[in-house]
Each structure stands twice: as structure tokens, then as C-alpha cells.
Amino acid sequence: MMSCFYSIVLLIIGLVLSIVGFNYFSRLKQVAKWTAVPAFSTRMEVGCLKRPEGYIYVTYYYPLVRYLYEINGKTYEGTQYCIDSKGWWSTDKGFIEKLVNSDRTSVSIYVNPSDPELSVMKKNVSRKRRSHYWGTLLGGVLVSVAAIISAAFVCLD
Questions:
Q1: What is the pLDDT of residues 58-85, one digit of tens each?
Q2: Could you write out the DSSP letters of every residue in 1-24?
Q3: If you compute the radius of gyration of the chain from its CA atoms, what whole number of angstroms results?
Q4: Closest among 132, 17, 135, 137 to 84, alpha carbons compared
Q5: pLDDT band for position 15 (cuts 50, 70, 90)
Q6: Is residue 86 within 8 Å of 99, Cβ to Cβ?
Q7: Prediction pTM value
Q8: What are the DSSP E strand ranges found in the chain?
Q9: Closest listed residue to residue 27, CA positions, set 148, 154, 129
Q10: End-to-end CA distance of the chain
């Protein structure tokens, strides 16, 4: 009976992972429909964050942005580079410096048509981050399938 409990717990974990992975892709699909709008950049620079990874600290660089845009005569301010806050983190400072290109003052952003306060500069995330989404979704599916198979052998005896 206890083994059946573990199969159910495994199934719940797999389903949660699958839902989280699906939600990542769902958000990307929603952002793909957002409208392009011209904006005025007030800040574009490289941010820096040191995070412990094992016994060392790894330095990550990311774009820090602030921009102003106007929708229906109302001015809004945005600070989000992409829909996933970690979507464009990199250990390569030069790569992030190319992204922010501080000479640009006129930029194009993407705004949610149903809520103009939501905006991003990039509609998608890096390939590396997208692989995390796939890993979460497929990992959840595999764990769910394993839970169902184990339940079939353990719980149905």
C-alpha cells in the first residue's frame, strides 16, 4: 500500500512539472501576439549579479532597461527586457553589451493590447532558456508516465 502512495506522489510531481512547462510556452505564445510600439529609451545598461554555484560565485550579466511609450495619449514606463526575467542572462558580458547598445534612444517594444501597462523589449527568450522550458515540460511528462507504469504494477496487484 505504501508503494502505491509513492506512485501517486510521483504522478502529482510529474503533473505539476508538466503544467509549469506548458505555462512557460503558453506565456511565450501570448507575448507573440503583442503589438509593436515605438518607445523612447531612458536607460540601457548592463546589470551584474553574482550567484553561488557550488563552491564558486558565477557572475551573470543581464540587460537593465527603462523606456517610455505612449498608448492612446497616456504615457507608460516599462523596465522589462523579456517576459522571463532570466531569459537573457549570460556569463558573457560582451554579449549583453551588444544587446543593450547604449547609443539607441528610439527603440521598438511590444505591448499587451488588452493591458498596455505590460510591455517587453524582446518577445522571445534565449535558446538556452527555451531548453529549460522543454526540459521542464518533457521531464514532467516522463515522470508522469513512469508514475502511471509503476502504479499499474504496484497498485493494481
A1: 888 888 888 999 998 999 999 888 766 6
A2: -HHHHHHHHHHHHHHHHHHHHHHH
A3: 21
A4: 132
A5: very high
A6: no
A7: 0.67
A8: 35-53, 56-71, 74-78, 106-112, 115-120
A9: 129
A10: 10
